[in-house]
Design a protein that fits this description.
alpha/beta; globular; Arc Repressor Mutant, subunit A; TIM Barrel; nine-stranded mixed beta sheet; three-stranded antiparallel beta sheet
Length: about 375
């Protein structure tokens, strides 16, 4: 049994599952666009899905919205306008709430940035991955350097004063010089946020079944360290494992995840986590993954692929799994605030982590040390159920 005195902040995640082409490294729930997008039907399904979730969140404002995919920017401004108007009619959305849209570079999509901004979308996350044409081709991207640069320039032109560029390193046959050049090119475009992470070969991807030649561990470590030095020199704070931001421009939606906040998930394959003060429970839910199945069931409870309540042990691990990704860690009271449980249920593990010099622990704050950040998997293993 939990004991919530107040509920954590609430966010809304919306999944739009289609993309032009499935990338060989991608393990997200994305599906190639083989025919005209069913925009009207899908937006109607999303709003029906949201309506069925409303009893779980009565009276709670939605602090942030993140529209991810897939490639959500494939949707027309008209469809997204219908969606956002429908959301505003159904939930409390504070003025100026962060609303993020994922977008991939491309002339047609970038040309819609002005329209997206007019809808109230105030943050973009642009999936650049690299500015090197050869590397982009090796990882199956459909855009090139020119389109990537144009997308960032058009984000500025459209009035986005807050946007992220996604960059990967450790790409097939990538050199250190190429990795550094990608970061320098990104900074010339003046994003407010940078996601910079290593390519990993995830199960159920083409790259996992047919692995490309990747840089060795030593070279990838050099890429990470040298790129991090350049990022710091440009004034971007390293606030999460792979996230860097200008002052005040951290992604509030993702920060809510990492602090074990609540979030509704609507759309094909979307996941959510909701705390309930009446029943003192935390429940995770996920929706039908296949877009056709989701469209068929979205107006009924069958849209759920699963719902389960977290145990006390699950909650302790999941909180730490997320919160220890943050460079500054978390204020100790957040554990009880966001789990409804006393922090002493993980006291033994905290002591072990402190003895191994993986965390710094005081009465008011817990943060990973530099050693803890470098050996994050080892640190998290201590909290496994």
């Amino acid at each position: 049994m939990h004991n919530f005195t107040a509920l954590p902040p609430l966010s809304l995640y919306i999944h739009i599952p289609w993309c032009v082409r499935k990338c060989p490294y991608c393990d997200f729930n994305s599906h190639e666009q083989k025919q005209a997008l069913p925009e009207k039907q899908y937006v109607a399904a999303l709003l029906a899905d949201l309506e069925q979730e409303l009893p779980h969140i009565w009276g709670r404002p939605v602090q942030t919205i993140f529209i991810g995919g897939g490639t959500p920017s494939l949707f027309s401004a008209e469809a997204l306008d219908t969606l956002l108007c429908g959301i505003r009619a159904r939930v409390q959305l504070p003025p100026g709430a962060e609303i993020t849209l994922e977008a991939n570079p491309g002339t047609v999509e970038a040309g819609k940035f002005h329209e997206f901004r007019a809808l109230g979308i105030n943050r973009l996350s642009i999936g650049v991955q690299s500015f090197n044409d050869d590397l982009l081709e090796r990882i199956g991207r459909i855009h090139g350097r020119r389109e990537a640069i144009r997308a960032a320039e058009e984000a500025h032109d459209a009035g986005f004063d807050n946007f992220n560029l996604d960059l990967m390193f450790g790409l097939p046959q990538q050199t250190l010089a190429q990795a550094l050049e990608d970061v320098r090119t990104a900074f010339a475009l003046e994003p407010t946020h940078l996601s910079h992470y290593q390519l990993t070969l995830e199960p159920n991807t083409l790259f996992h079944h047919n692995p490309p030649a990747l840089p060795d561990d030593e070279l990838r470590w050099d890429m990470q360290e040298r790129c991090q030095d350049i990022i710091a020199e440009h004034g971007y704070g390293h606030y999460e494992v792979s996230a860097y931001a200008k002052q005040g421009k951290q992604c509030q939606h993702n920060v809510n995840y990492w602090r074990f906040g609540d979030y509704l998930g609507i759309g094909a394959g979307a996941h959510g986590k909701i705390s309930d003060a009446q029943y003192q429970t935390i429940t995770r839910h996920n929706k039908q993954r296949n877009p056709n199945d989701y469209l068929r069931t979205a107006h009924s409870p069958e849209r759920d692929q699963g719902r389960h309540r977290l145990t006390r042990v699950d909650v302790g691990f999941e909180f730490m799994l997320n919160a220890l990704r943050l460079t500054e860690g978390f204020e100790s009271h957040l554990f009880q605030d966001h789990t409804g449980l006393p922090i002493n249920i993980i006291e033994k593990q905290l002591q072990q982590a402190e003895e191994l010099e993986l965390i710094e622990w005081s009465a008011t704050h817990i943060r990973p040390t530099e050693r803890g950040r470098n050996y994050l998997n080892d640190l998290l293993q201590l909290f496994l159920p």
